[in-house]
Amino acid sequence: MTKRKASSSLTHSSRLNTSDQISTEGRKEAADNYQQRLRKDENSILKLIRPLDSERLTLAQDIVDTAARLMEEHLGAAPPSQNQATDVIDNATELHPDPPMQQSDTLADPGTSALKAGNSIGNSTLLKDTLDEAKEWILWQSIDNEKDMYSPIGAFIEYVALVVQEILTSSSAPTSNSSLGRRLVLPSTDTDYTPIDARDRVRIGMGLARRRLGDRVDVGRSYSYYDMLGIIEAKVEENDEGFEEAFKKLLICTRQMYQQQHHLSFAWGITISGRDVRMCHFGPDKAASSLPMNVSTPEGRRAFIEVLVHCSLCEESQLGRDTSMEYLPELNCWKIACPDETGSMGESATTQDYYLVSVRYQADRMFGRHTRCFLATKDRPTVEITDTSPLIPTVVIKDSWVFSKRNAADDTRDEVRLLKKIKESLSAHTADKDIIIPEIVVGGRVSFQWNGKWVEDTTSTMYQLSEADSSDASYFRGHHRIVMSPIGEPLHTTKSAAEFVTVVCDAMRTHSAIVKHCNILHRDISDNNILVVRKDGIARGLLIDFDYAIDMDQTECDQRIEMTGTGPYMSINNLSESKVERTSLDDWESM
């Protein structure tokens, strides 16, 4: 049993409400997102973590059966049936069909390994001690405030990890699949703490992270935001108010997971109000929470066990991991696959691998494009990257989730398409040949392996929406990745007022040329979108980020339908959501 501890530097009464820890803006943003973006009791999200492989799904159910049986025997209650435990998701919309059952020589009797391991671990002193601690939460014993909840909640999760560990590492466990997608899900032993890589002093309730099979369960763990699979926030009140407060805090903290994990496509989290457990999913535009799983009942306990087991056996992509990015420990760097200009990274398209040097820009919002920028090189390192043998960047990679058309060929606002048009159009005008514009190396929609097939990484894939939902274009985003040059520096790196004016004038000269010769309107002029490029010691201006740009030659482009841009720099016309057509004057007002 793991000794859990809460930080002693802050009293219980001051947690959550101190103004110097959670800004007024952060609390207001969380409250707005709770009201506007949350889809409550959407139990279909639980199917997003269900193992896709038929063998793993069968194995998962055997582990759930074993864990639920042992827990109920320890509690002295009758174990629930599988049907009872899954009543909570019977009314859920199917997100994808059940994986087809396949014959397998290695899984002729799928319950054998779980039964043997279950009989063995059932006599474990560690398991019994862990269950004894979990009982304090299940039976609500000696709990006066939220701090008292975390240790038994952690024990419940550790108990499931012990059963998973025993079964998956037993000699009789199925071995037809690789170890990919098989992991332990373990809570932090630190509770009510500030992660070491936090950008503020906000404290999380408890962290949840992946760990390798074979890692010890009974040791201390303190997770950073970079490590986390998700965050757990608990409240004593077993009602809607308790859930609301826990969810708002989860929103505030999960934002930092996006900032620290550059390979995170979407995020998971858990709220606990009293003994009601809800799994929460965070996508680019919306959040969803499951129906409550009440652990005071056998059915609720089994449902929560099933969630944890599925998280242990599903694919990394189902947990939000961008599998087109891979860490290479032998080289101490990340490899990132980039689509070529022909479109996505599917079987019919080629990809190019790049090696990350550094993260120039991190995702800084809970919802939206989640734009990240990396400095990278195409040359694979030959030795481990260190301070004394660094990589030299040659390109910048922009990674973002942007509003798109479902068919990439119809996406007239695609940034790759717009930048290619700009290059072709400006090349015909000699007076503007010295203008610096982003040069595309490769780019397009990202794809990944999903249940053995290549699929485009879009919100449709993320949620597995049916064709009947195709009219809901407001939530359709595509995962785009573009490799570009030259590499610029932030506007604040200008060395004098004269240099600053030169850089800004360069950028707006580019803007005017693009409007005049290409009929493309940028619509997001801000300090972040003007960079400094130095050539032969001379500073020049580079206008970037055409995610919000429109091609006014396209008849379907409506210049009035949306408020776009960066808040502090929007024109009055834009801020007021006027029906007056947007023009280049709005961009000049932003400047």
Backbone structural class: alpha+beta
Counted by DSSP, the helix tally is 13
Cα(first) to Cα(last) distance is 60 Å
The Cα radius of gyration reads 26 Å
Number of strands: 23
Mean pLDDT: 83
Largest sheet: 8 strands, mixed
Shape: elongated
Helix content: 25-40%
List keywords for this structure.
591 residues, alpha+beta, 8-stranded mixed β-sheet, 13 helices, 23 strands
Description of the molecule:
This protein has 591 residues and is of the alpha+beta class. The protein is built from 13 helices and 23 strands. It has helices spanning 24-37, 54-75, 82-85, 112-121, 125-138, 146-168, 240-260, 298-313, 415-426, 459-463, 497-518, 572-575, 584-590, and strands at residues 5-6, 38-39, 184-187, 190-191, 206-211, 228-235, 267-273, 276-282, 287-289, 293-294, 325-328, 333-339, 351-361, 372-377, 395-403, 439-445, 447-450, 453-456, 477-485, 520-521, 530-535, 538-543, 550-551. It starts with a strand and ends with a helix. Mean pLDDT is 83; it is low at 7-19, 85-113, 175-179 and 465-471.
